[in-house]
Amino acid sequence: MKPTIEQISRHVDQTITLGCWLANKRSSGKIAFLQLRDGTGFIQGIVVKSDVGEELFQKAKGLTQESSMYVEGVVKTDERSPSGFELQVTGLEIIHEAVDYPITPKEHGTEFLMDHRHLWMRSKKQHAILRIRNEIIRATYAFFDKEGFVKIDPPILTGNSAEGTTNLFHTKYFDENAYLSQSGQLYLEAAAMAFNRVFSFGPTFRAEKSKTRRHLIEFWMIEPEMAFTDHEESLQIQEQYVSHIAKSVIDHCPLELEALDRDITKLQQIQAPFPRLTYDEAIVFLRGQGFDIAWGEDLGAPHETAIAESYDKPVFITHYPLGIKSFYMKPDPENPEVALCADLIAPEGYGEIIGGSQRIDDFELLEQRFEEHGLSEDAYRWYLELRQYGSVPHSGFGLGLERTVAWMSGIEHVRETIPFPRLLNRLYP
User: Fold this and answer.
1) Strand duo 31-37 + 42-48: pairing
2) Whether pTM exceeds 0.85
3) Coiled coil: which residue ranges (predicted)?
């Protein structure tokens, strides 16, 4: 197999052949500098006219942006290079010459770049963001495997809502109504009763007409559910998990973080335990900051940002009023007006990245919640039966992948954190 740029350190002073594309180039008299990429990384190729001859040198100088090629050369160490290496080119075979590549080094508008997303993801910063996304996914599987979780895949087509909302994409399932899933949680609760600790990782859909920088129509969720686990234990697992993926990004994505000019010190502070604030304490704090907010109102993005700015780490906001939370959340036995739940708010203005709770495990209480929320008992009969046959205390949470990628990458908008974002007015490409 041909070596890749990612493996380049294994081939110092060796002659190798790279399959690659031309990201950019410049020339200085008798030397051409080729910025090469192969999908695993970027490296500079040096073409010296006196070493390669006129024909090859002119071929190198005439290369167009994003042309594909095989490049032969000797790997050399170079402390000035971000990767620590460069390639002294000795041969070049063009595979395909790209003509009039639309994304040039000049500035382009966001809509133009989104229309060319299939090409934009080749650029260095977009490439770095999606590599960080990949590392968070890899670290997620490693963490839950180490902690004894079983991967379970809930259905994407469902007959009802996980949270009783109307923000669902409707479709026909032969002669029945069906919806694209907004969460796999209810199915994972069933799986937890079979396997104890489970998690899912998959796409979810919200038909919310939102245009904010934090929202996507289609996004990916990591959703663990745990039997015999109370609210406090769940919070500990959440902070251990987030700390783990932050460390993995620091350890395995140094070049990507550098390409994004990410302040590493902010990521290094993401270590458990995380500070906690009850909803009551949050209301008092927000009023002290000049917010006009009544007890019982949900917290919006400005509220979350104001709270997060007081901390260097993510902060848990716990014990929200039952009235603004989902039907399945267990009331706090010491104060039944609030739920045993928490949202994890990321620092630097990135907002909520995790929502979680202890789930109701009492059959009669859950049945009462169905009535209060106007939910069909027939549609949820299977979910009720989980409380009928060996019910146990159990908890779970969901982490939004794209918001987490945006936060750890230090970028402003979640639309750059997924290969092909689905936004309110964007279904192309």
Assistant:
1) antiparallel
2) yes
3) none
Burial code of 74-85, b = ≥16 C-beta within 10 A, e = fewer? bbeebeeeebeb
Run of H or E residues at 135 = helix 124-146
Q: In this structure, are residues 15 and 3 in contact, taking their beta carbons and an 8 Å threshold?
A: no
Domain architecture of the chain: domains with CATH: 5-96 (2.40.50.140), 118-416 (3.30.930.10)
Contact between 379 and 370 (Cβ < 8 Å): no
Which tokens hold the place of 287?
């009023």
Asked if 171 and 180 touch (Cβ cutoff 8 Å), the reply is yes
Helix (H, G, I), strand (E, B) or coil at 311: coil
- Helices then strands, counting H and E runs in the chain, come out as 14, 18
Cβ proximity of 225 and 396 under 8 Å: yes
Residue with tokens 């400005």: 302
**Rounded Cα gap, residues 27 and 119, in angstroms:** 25
The one-letter code for the residue type at 46 is: I
For 353-390, the pLDDT digits (tens) are: 999 999 999 999 999 999 998 888 888 899 999 999 99
Strand ranges (E), 206-320: 218-227, 276-278, 315-318
Q: Which parts of 38-149 are beta strand (E)?
A: 42-48, 68-77, 85-96
Nearest to 404 by CA among 163, 220, 224, 141: 220
Residues 303, 309, 311, 313, Cα dihedral to 10°: 90
CA-CA distance, 104 to 117, in Å (whole number)? Answer: 14
Amino acid at 420: F
Model confidence pLDDT, tens digit, residues 313-334? 999 999 999 999 999 999 999 9
